[in-house]
Amino acid sequence: MNWFKKIADRIIDWQSPGLQLRYVDELPEMVTDKVIYIVGEMNFPWLLAFKCPCGCQNLIQLNLLKDAEPCWRFKIDKKKKINIYPSVWRINGCKSHFFIRKSKIQWARF
Ligand SMILES: [Zn+2]
User: What pTM was computed for the model?
Assistant: First the structure.
């Protein structure tokens, strides 16, 4: 990667607001790109859903209920940025593996 591309990537990253958050009672039929849907009641969300960031158009749904496996947790910080734990690793389809930190996708590298 040359220096120009490095700087350009950094500027794009800095400008991008990251993923938006939307609280919904039910998952809408049409989901918008770059939006994380927090499904359920405000104090009791049970699902996170968003389109796969790789561009494959698949809907990723993360269960938040502790009595079902697998289960994810999320935190929203003071700046309203979301962090999701653990990482998302699709076992089928595109097999994307990434983290969501501060409302941004961080691709896992191996
Ligand atoms: Zn994908």
Answer: 0.83
